[in-house]
Amino acid sequence: MYPSAKLVALVALLSSPAFVAAVPFDANVPVAVKGESCDSNTTPLGCTADGSSVALCNQGQWVTQACPSGTSCSALSCTWNEAIPSNAASSGSSSAPSTAASNSVRDDPGYTVASDPTSSASASGSASSSAESPAYSSSNPSSGGGSGGGSGDLSSITVAEIQKAVTDSGYPEPTSEVCQAFIDQWSKGDISSAQEAAMLIAELIWESGGFQYVSEIACSDGKSCAGSYATPGTDVSGKSYYGRGYIQLSWADNYKAASEDLFGDDRLLTDPDQVATDVKTAVAVSLWYWKARVHNAPGVSEGKFGAATKAINGGLECGTGSPTPAKRFAIYEKVLKAFNVQATPDSSGC
Q1: Which of 58, 168, 249, 294 fits a disulfide with 334 by CB distance 3.0 to 4.6 angstroms?
Q2: Which residues span the domain enclosing 97?
Q3: 196 is catalytic
């Protein structure tokens, strides 16, 4: 079977001879060289070694798409290299501001970026999408609740406390609908303690610019990303599987896996837009990502916030001298305080 025209175009974008296939947590990272074969069943997605492009294993060969300016490949798709500023949108609004695009960048686990943040409303755009392969996204419940010592009572967290956590972190107040959606769905992320909930909310505040961005800015017009996340044989005709959600989901295989795990059907594969347009679904998908990729990562159950950061974006942030982990941790400290969790914040693990 020959590659599609879209994938031929992707091949033209090959820019580096070496590719690193992303794998979860501390596993050894397999290296594939341009021209070498790959196995889509075990390593379907990856990043170029220099982080400049996202890689897709198609018919046994690696093809890539270059990341937009200001981003690099992480968690299997393109992510902002800096943080979205806290003034990126008006309080209580999901629309992006009239600030310069160059100032509206962030660093997280994986979405393509936009050239103009003023072009969107509800689908305004994080730069990161969790393109983690379903092959690496199966959850192991052996770690239990993943609470960490000193965690508080999950049932005591209120909408007002989540809103305070966000505003104390320098972002506009999120809607009560967003906050309530988390409270109603903690179990979808295997969250069972206030401390792990604080870890989750802190990471998502960073990932989504304070819950302002729920899809890739560059893709919000429905046309700019056509073909960018193509998976022949899996995609539904006319649908685009760019990043959506507060920690964004991309690629058809991941939409399918999340849909089957959350709903027992393929609704997200056939209608991916609902991840960006329906708040409850956006939250559910973000919790699914946490359960699949972060919840059971080494150190998370011990309350090591850096371990959560490592699971999300460790390739670019941990051990690289990046200032981003400290920025994430500063948000976490504020969330713990807002949630009245008495645990001592622990930044280790990254």
Answers
A1: 168
A2: 67-350
A3: no
